[in-house]
Write a structure and sequence with these properties.
Rossmann fold, about 15% strand, 7 strands, seven-stranded parallel β-sheet, binds nicotinamide-adenine-dinucleotide, alpha/beta
Length: about 280
């Protein structure tokens, strides 16, 4: 299916080898879009072990995959905690492609340091989570939204939120607050941009089978004397057992929802927050 032929997509946080951003960028490219992808440059110590082992090169590796599908790709490194870098990144995408039809706000702060009771959560970690998970979504929506309005061709903005944006859990104050806020931002932006035929929706995944970096998981794995990957495997299995459909999400499950929301078939849907969670949560 090439229903996104002629469209330009921008996906943030797209450099992870098994991340939702990469799966989404590839899905949109398979559906015909040309894709700009962005990520922050990360220290080797902040990368999942498989990415180091397999010499994965973040968005440069993803760009090669997209180009091998016959689509144009622009990888741009950008730290989303810096508004100036966001403006520069969007400027580069506009110079290269002349427009942006689909924005996927997917990046998030590296998790783990937030996994403490609210009484122990540091102000620094709180600020960082809000900066990447919420404020950067606002800034990208504003900067790209202005271009969409100026070009007058409508658009799609898709924010990757979480189950945790609808139902908080212990030791999740910063993460949940940041994702609940994304749902409020999604609804308000949808109303502001509706007159321009720009739809704004959120996707709320449950646990996903990624090898995302988590400082918390790495610490527990060390304590238990197992590798991070073994530890992660156990979490994935346990979470799968708790999920009515018997497994946790694959990154592609989330990418499929994004591709639908980006398509013409979703033209009349805005301000919504769709769960992709195998039946874990219903509201
Ligand atoms: N993995 C899960 O189980 C899960 C569950 C529910 C929701 N989600 C959501 O799905 C989305 C993707 O999840 P994932 O597990 O693929 O992501 P991830 O944890 O691998 O991180 C996404 C990307 O964000 C980038 N990033 C981190 N800090 C950045 C910064 N300062 N500037 C720019 N980019 C930065 C990372 O480099 C990474 O490539 C996120 O929004 C996440 O909250 C994930």
């Amino acid at each position: 299916m090439a229903d996104l032929e002629g469209k330009i997509a921008l996906v943030t946080g797209a450099g992870g080898m098994r991340g939702v951003g990469r799966a989404t960028a590839l899905k949109l490219a398979q559906r015909g879009a040309d894709v700009a992808i962005t990520d922050v440059r990360r220290e080797t110590s902040d990368l999942p072990p498989a990415e180091v082992r397999e010499e994965w090169h973040s968005i440069d590796s993803v760009a090669e995959e997209i180009e091998s599908l016959g689509r144009a790709c622009l990888p741009v490194y950008c730290d989303l905690s810096d508004d100036g870098q966001i403006q520069g990144m969007v400027g580069q995408v506009m110079d290269r492609f002349g427009g942006i039809d689909i924005l996927v706000n997917n990046a998030r702060a590296i998790i783990g340091r937030d996994k403490v009771p609210v009484t122990e959560l540091s102000r620094e970690v709180w600020d960082h989570f809000l900066a990447i998970n919420t404020t950067a979504v606002f800034v990208c929506t504003q900067v790209v939204g202005r271009e969409m309005v100026r070009l007058g061709k409508g658009g799609r903005i898709i924010n990757i939120a979480s189950n945790a944006g609808k139902q908080a859990s212990a030791m999740g104050a910063a993460y949940s607050a940041s994702k609940f806020a994304v749902l409020g931002l999604t609804q308000a932006s949808a109303m502001d941009l509706a007159e321009y035929q720009i739809t704004v929706n959120a996707v709320c995944p449950g646990p996903i089978n990624t090898d995302r970096m988590s400082y918390w998981e790495r610490g527990l794995a060390e304590e238990q004397g197992v590798t991070l990957e073994e530890f992660r495997g156990r979490i994935v299995e346990e979470a799968g057992r708790r999920t009515p459909l018997g497994r946790i999400a694959e990154a592609e499950d989330v990418a499929n929802m994004v591709a639908f929301l980006a398509s013409e078939d979703a033209a009349f849907i805005t301000g919504q927050a769709y769960n992709v969670n195998g039946g874990l949560l219903f509201h």
